[in-house]
Amino acid sequence: EACIGAIDAAGALNAFVHKTPDIALERAKAADARLKSGEEAPAMCGIPVGIKDLFCTQGVESQAASGILEGFKPEYESTVSQNLIDAGAVMLGKLNMDEFAMGSSNETSVYGNAVNPWKVDDRQLTPGGSSGGSASAVAADLCLAATGTDTGGSIRQPAALTGITGIKPTYGRCSRWGIIAFASSLDQAGPMTKNVRDAAIMLEAMCSHDPKDSTSADIPVPNFEAMLTGDIKGKVIGIPKEYRMDGMPEEVEKLWADGTAMLKDAGARIIDISLPHTKYALPAYYVIAPAEASSNLARYDGVRYGHRASLAKGEGIVDMYEKTRAEGFGHEVQRRVMVGTYVLSAGFYDAYYNRARRVRALIKRDFDEAFDQGVDAILTPATPGPAFGLGEMSEADPVEMYLQDVFTVTVNLAGLPGISVPAGLDKQGLPLGLQLIGRPWEEGDLLNVAYALE
Ligand code: GLN
């Protein structure tokens, strides 16, 4: 009830786009009954959470913040949100995001942007994106935790810009079934929480092997919380020199150095490493992600889901497809569909898509080599800077926005787990995050290093 009240009072943040107080109160009652019955409570019994609008939730609007899915209420529940229900979590509603998770500021949402609860004077700031509503809601205490998804940084970047914790697990840890697809070889769900312990508990609840997702991994899910000992003595932390970008703000550099010193004081061994193909990650990502998106988004044709354009007399089915897609998709989504279609077209496939895939393999190999040298985790900044003002980045230059992902996309391209933890404030008093990148399937160790940094 306190959360429902807080959500109503914080309408100006535009974090929740569909509220489900009835579902919340019903599940809360069930949780109460479970606790009173004396039976052992599941890990998230009665914990109020928000669910990103990208997750299909049975009977509740699930629109990926897009006009094209207007009014879409799925008949089924995504595996991840079902796992959370099974663990006793209480859904308060659906959270704002960039349309189809494409963006870094939550400004491409059909609902309008979410707002960062952190402010400098009266300047309104973005909570980041695409999981901007999730970040804003957790940072403003509207819920105890939220789900996010991360294709190129959409959990870690908004977590960093709002001073919360967010982990993208290894590709295959969380089932993608029932999560509206953006770029299927990169998409992963993960928790966005107040701290590392909450992230460990919620991640464990979200993970499972799911035969309905052929890329879901059939490996045991450990008790992540039990792995939080804070003991990182002897762990090897790699500092990649390629992440020291030109023009990096001094404060980010300082925070990175402070984080390194903190891990060293806790007994870790710090080594310099090289990930030589880092500079090609962003261009490769912005070929691969739109390519997959153009294919995934072909299903929105006005026939099967959501919005359908009305037709003038004499117009046929092709007009219907065209008008529906022109009306239903926002500008950024249209741009991605066009870029994706172009790079997959017969004449350009080798020059762009295949080349990007080769670059992706090289990026993965860089990480493999670092891990082969004995590196346990890699420490980098999470974002190039703090939260920026809403409306400050021009739509005319999308690359400016794409640069937000410069430290995060490598992790998705390589399928690795990555976590962003709050690392301190900049001189305006805004939060900044540090990112730790771990070995595949070793989220427990990664969380433990993050715990030492927290
Ligand atoms: N900002 C990146 C993009 O627009 C990443 C988004 C994401 O991780 N979903 O593609």
From TrEMBL:
* SUPFAM superfamilies assigned to the protein according to its UniProt record, in alphabetical order: Amidase signature (AS) enzymes
Q: Which residues form the active site?
A: 52 (charge relay system), 130 (charge relay system), 154 (acyl-ester intermediate)
Q: What class of enzyme is it?
A: ligase
Domain Amidase positions: 1-447
Per its record, the protein catalyses: L-glutamyl-tRNA(Gln) + L-glutamine + ATP + H2O = L-glutaminyl-tRNA(Gln) + L-glutamate + ADP + phosphate + H(+)
Kindly list the GO CC terms recorded for this protein: glutamyl-tRNA(Gln) amidotransferase complex
Q: Which GO terms describe its biological process?
A: translation
For the keyword Nucleotide-binding, the answer is yes
- The yes or no answer to whether the keyword Cell inner membrane is present is no
Q: Which family does it belong to?
A: Belongs to the amidase family. GatA subfamily.
Task: Report the function annotation for this chain.
Answer: Allows the formation of correctly charged Gln-tRNA(Gln) through the transamidation of misacylated Glu-tRNA(Gln) in organisms which lack glutaminyl-tRNA synthetase. The reaction takes place in the presence of glutamine and ATP through an activated gamma-phospho-Glu-tRNA(Gln).
- Subunit info? Heterotrimer of A, B and C subunits.
Record protein name field: Glutamyl-tRNA(Gln) amidotransferase subunit A
Lineage of the organism: Bacteria, Pseudomonadati, Pseudomonadota, Alphaproteobacteria, Rhodobacterales
